Amino acid sequence: MPVERRERNMKPNLKQKFKLGTTLFSFTNEFWSHEYTFEQLVRKVGELGLGPGLEVIGFQSIRGFPNVSDEFAARFRDLVAMYKLEPTSLAINADVWARRGGAPLSVDETVAYLDPQIRAAKKLGFPVVRSQLAATPEVVERLLPLVEKLGVRMGPELHAPWTIDSPAIVAYRELYARLRSPLLGFIPDFGSCAKAWPAPYLRQLREAGIPPALLDLAMSVWNGDGDTQWKRDEFARRAAAAKFEPASISRLGVLFSMLIKQDPHVWMEIMPQIIHVHCKFYDFDVDGNETTVPYDELLPMFVEGGYEGYMSSEWEGHMYSRGSGIEAVQKHHALSKRILAPYN
Amino acid sequence: MDTCFNALLLNAERGLRATPNGAEIDVRLPWYRSLPVSVVEVGSLKVDEQDVASSDIRFELNGKSFELQDLPAHSGEFWFVLDAAVLRLPGIRLEPGTDHEVELQLNLYPPYVPHLKWVTKVRRTLRAR
C-alpha cells in the first residue's frame, strides 16, 4: 500500500458511518441445491453475525413474487427481529424483454410490472428497492409518486459493463438533478471497478474446455483500453473472426458484463446519491485479501465520503463453483472489518 | 470444478421416469432467480444419441403442459427457482431400471439483461424409474 494512502487511511477523525450486511444472492448455491431454505439462510446470517444488513432478491427467495402473503411477511418480520437484522434492499426486476421475439414492455407496462414489487418491499420492511437499467429514467420518474407515498428509496444498480459516464447512467444523473428527490439514488456494484479476473473462474472455464487461445483473447481485450461496452462487442467480433465455437464465445462474453475495470474513485462523484452498495467479490489470497476488487481503497473511500447506508457482501461464486457462499461471506466480513478497524 | 447449475440440471437419481405417457425428464432452472417460461428454450435434446425433435417434447410446469414453440407467449408463467420442470417425451418408451444417456442444452434469455443468452449443456447417464 502506498505510504500516502496508509496515512490517509489512519486519519483519526474519520469514522465509519455505514453498516455491513449480506445479500442472500451470495447463498445461491446453498439455496438452489435445496441445502438451506430461505428461513434457514436468514437465521444463518443472524447466527454468524453477517448482518446487520439483510438484502433479498424478490424473484429468488419468494415463491409467487411479487405476491407476498400476510403470513410470509409476518414470519419474515419476526425472523428479522429475532436475529436483530435490518432489511436493507429488496432487489426488484424490470423484465422488459420477457416476451421473447416480441415487443419489449412499454413504459406503462414496466411501471405496472414494478408497482407491486415496490409495494412488496414496503410490506416486508425494506427501505430500498434495487432496480436495474431496464427500468429507464422515464419509468423511475413515473414511479416517484409511489415511492414517495410508501417512503421507499429506489435506484438502479450501477453494474458492469456500464461506467459512471455511460450515456445510460448520465441520463439518470440528469433526471436526479432535475427532480432533486432524496428517494432516488444509485447502487454501485463493485464488480464495475475490478482490477483483475478471479483465478478460480478462469480455471473452471479452462477445465470446461474453453480453448486457452480464446481465454487469452478475452483477457487481452478485457485488460486493454477502450469503452467497456465496446470491449464486449470487440471480443465477440474478434473471436467470431477467429472461428471459435459460438457457445464458447457466448460463455466468455458474459464475463464482460460481470466485471469491468474502472477507477474506484468515480464513486466519490455520486457519493451523496448512493443509497446502497453491492460489495461484489470472488476470491481471496492466503492473507485473506480479495483478489479482484480493491477493497483496501474502496472501503476507506466510503468512510471519507461519509456514506451512511449498508454494504451487502455479494459473492458470485455460483457462476464457477459449488463452493459455500456462507464461508465466502464470512471471509469478506473479516476482511471488511480488518480494513475498517481504524475507523471504529 | 463444476457448478451447481451444471451438476444438478438433470437429476441422476430420480430425474428420468418411464410412464404410460412416455419418458419424463426432470430439469432445473440454471439461474439464480425465477424466470418466466417465455425466456426458456430447449436448445437440443438427445436420448441415447438420438435427437428428439422439439415437436416431440412437452414442457410441464405448475400443473400445466406447453408445446415448446408456445413457450415464448407465456411471459406471465413463472418457473420458481427451486422447482423442477418436466420434459415429457410421449414418443419415447423406456424400461424401468435401464440406463440412458441424456444430453440437454437449455438456453435462457434473462429478460432484464439485454443480449444475454445463457447456455447450459449437460450430458448424463440417467436410470429410468
Provide an overview of this structure.
Chain A has 344 residues and is α/β, with parallel strands linked by helices. Chain A has 2 domains: 264 residues, TIM Barrel, CATH 3.20.20; 54 residues. In chain A, 44% of the residues lie in helices and 11% in strands. Chain A contains 14 helices and 8 strands. In chain A, helix 6 runs parallel beside helix 7 and helix 13 packs across helix 14. Chain A is globular, with a radius of gyration of 20 Å. The model of chain A has no long low-confidence stretch (mean pLDDT 95). By secondary structure, chain B is mostly beta strands. Helix content of chain B is 4%, strand content 46%. Chain B has 1 helix and 11 strands; from the N terminus they run αβββββββββββ. Chain B has a 5-stranded antiparallel β-sheet, with no helix packed on it. A 4-stranded antiparallel β-sheet of chain B has the order 5-4-10-11. In chain B, strand 1 and strand 2 form a beta hairpin. Chain B is globular. Chains A and B meet through helix 2, helix 9 and helix 12 of A and helix 1, strand 3 and strand 11 of B.
Helix content of chain A: 40-55%
Q: Give the beta-strand count of chain B.
A: 11
- Quaternary assembly: heterodimer
How many distinct folded domains of chain A?
Answer: 2
Q: Whole-number radius of gyration of chain B?
A: 14 Å
Structural class of chain B: mainly beta
CATH class of the largest domain in chain A: Alpha Beta
> What value does the average pLDDT of chain B take?
96
Our count of helices of chain A gives: 14
Order of helices and strands of chain A: HEHHEHHEHEHEHEHHHHEHEH
* Named CATH architecture of the largest domain in chain A: Alpha-Beta Barrel
| Spans of at least 5 consecutive residues with low confidence of chain A | none
Largest sheet of chain B: 5 strands, antiparallel
What's the SSE pattern of chain B? HEEEEEEEEEEE
Q: Largest chain interface and its two residue counts?
A: A-B, 39 and 34 residues
Distance N to C terminus of chain B: 29 Å
Return the average pLDDT of chain A rounded to an integer: 95
- Tell me about the biggest sheet of chain A? 8 strands, parallel
